[in-house]
Amino acid sequence: MEEKKNLWGGRFTTPTDETFTEFNRSFGFDCRLFAADIVASIAHANGLGRAGVLTQDEAAAIVSGLEGLAEKAGLEPDFFDDDAAEDVHSFIEAHLVEAIGDLGKKLHTGRSRNDQVATAFRLWLRAETDSVIEELRVLERALIAAAERHPDAVLPGYTHLQRAQPVMWAYWCLAYVEMFNRDRERFFQARGRLNTMPLGSAALAGTAFPIDREAVAKELGFEGVSRNSLDAVSDRDFAVEFAAASSLVMVHLSRLAEDLILYCSTEFGFVTLSDAVSTGSSLMPQKKNPDALELLRGKSGRVFGHHAGLLAMLKGLPLAYNKDMQEDKEAIFDTVDTLRLCLQVTEIVLANVTLNEDRCRCAATTGYLNATELADYLVKKGIPFRTAHDAVGRLVLFGIEQGRELNELTLDEMQAVAAEIDEAVFEALSLERTLASKAAVGGTSPERVRAELDAAKERLKL
Ligand code: ARG
Predict the structure, then answer these.
(1) Does some domain include residue 60?
(2) Residue 157: phi, psi to the nearest 5?
């Protein structure tokens, strides 16, 4: 029987247009699914063997043929070069037939590339998800290490990028630990939904062979099997969820990057980035630029783009599989590559950040960051908060005119505005007291921050 080189030539009489052939091909990028597709194909062959669709000998020969291909791919770096295959699935089938002969043509019994690609893609992304979860953990550890390098340091907290209230440096670090911890949880939950096996859906209506799908799923480490094949072959929710979770990580990384870009500017001067993660200017000899951080901020855009692109690609697609869906691969591959690189670079940057503690402390104690503390002090003397707020506002205005901080005013000057103020106010307005008063859960008191650091380490099993 004369057969075409591709997987579907029987009903075609004239050759495919060359430009269209290239347009249609995905091998250039989906070869990344090679190992996953081999593993899934082995499980499928075993399933066919157990079902009696293949003899035990046939199944065993196909499995060893597939294992041989995997070995070859590991040994020969140019194995994937210049191959005319349409996609990774036809590539594997063609090489299998080349290796074991016509028996290789039995492998595709009871499956379609539609359930095959969905299965391989899920297996591949499951492993990447595990790596991302681990890299998030490493990043959280780096934040904790940065916090512990400066355990007593403070810096101004901001709202509207205006100095607001002093906070511990470790508290700032822990804010990002919270974000990455949520991210980790999100990937973990998405992994749970991803871990369902579409194999056995065949093209769209289910397989016509008595394959024990649960057993195949078990072999591949899937939690369960899909319940509806129309859905299973056209479902890319797992890819969208991965891109969405990645987008949120990138939001967090970009905010971390932006904070540090500001903090290492001369205007702020809170942190110094070491040379290892900075670049110079080709023209201005004095420059030291935070390019690593700017790239972390900048690369978020392409990840958001992939998320939006996936949604747009899937929107309105009729059931079930459509070739549009081949576009999912490059979006996810670039999302994974960008995200993982950014996580690794952020960890390196954090190890190269030094806090300028004196400068931070000075900034945290100038600019009326203890004004709320004074209002709270008056509240504790029975004055309604709104009244206290107004009185302190007037004292701040007076201080600005005088060029003095609140704690630099005299007791007389303060009492002229609020008679309830007494000598104890100076102690109350100190940085130490300002911080220590935020002792409720979620606050920045040194004691609370130490407890949260311990809790974070416990969560990370440090
Ligand atoms: N390369 C294809 C993809 O990524 C594989 C599935 C092709 N299925 C088909 N019926 N043409 O989506």
Answers:
(1) yes
(2) -90, 150
**Contact call for residues 331 and 243 (beta carbons, < 8 A):** yes
In this structure, what DSSP letter does residue 166 have? E
Cα of 299 from ligand 1 centre, angstroms: 29
DSSP string of 28-82, one letter each residue: HHHGGGHHHHHHHHHHHHHHHHHTTSS-HHHHHHHHHHHHHHHHHHHH-TTTTTT
> Is position 234 annotated as part of the catalytic site?
no
Measured in Å, residue 279 CA sits from the centre of ligand 1 at: 44
Question: What is the pLDDT tens value at each position of the chain, 462 positions in all?
Answer: 445 568 888 899 999 999 999 999 999 999 999 999 999 999 999 999 999 999 999 999 999 999 999 999 999 989 999 788 999 999 999 999 999 999 999 999 999 999 999 999 999 999 999 999 999 999 999 999 999 999 999 999 999 999 999 999 999 999 999 999 999 999 999 999 999 999 999 999 999 999 999 999 999 999 999 999 999 999 999 999 999 999 999 999 999 999 999 999 999 999 999 999 999 999 999 999 999 999 999 999 999 999 999 999 999 999 999 999 999 999 999 999 999 999 999 999 999 999 999 999 999 999 999 999 999 999 999 999 999 999 999 999 999 999 999 999 999 999 999 999 999 999 999 999 999 999 999 999 999 999 999 999 999 987
Q: What are the phi and psi torsion angles at 32 (to 5°)?
A: -65, -20
Q: What is the distance between the alpha carbons of residues 194 and 126, in angstroms, rounded to a whole number? A: 7
Q: Residue 10: beta bridge partners?
A: none
- Assess if residue 9 is contained within a domain: no
Q: Is 281 a catalytic residue?
A: yes
Question: Which residue matches tokens 């904790």?
Answer: 144
Tally of structural domains, the chain = 3
C-alpha separations of 208 from 150, 196, 201, 228 in Å: 65, 20, 9, 14
Is 53:110 a contact under the CB 8 Å cutoff? yes
State the CATH number of the domain containing residue 351: 1.20.200.10
Residue 7 lies in a domain: no
CATH number for 29: 1.10.275.10
CA 25 to ligand 1 center in whole angstroms: 10
Are 363 and 163 within 8 A, CB to CB? yes
Nearest to 214 by CA among 231, 228, 206, 226: 226
- Which of 314, 336, 358 delimits the end of a domain? 358
- Which of residues 88, 109, 130 is at a domain's end? 109
The boundaries of the domain holding residue 170 are: 114-211+221-358
Which atom of ligand 1 is least distant from the CA of 329? Answer: 4
Domain for residue 199, yes or no?
yes
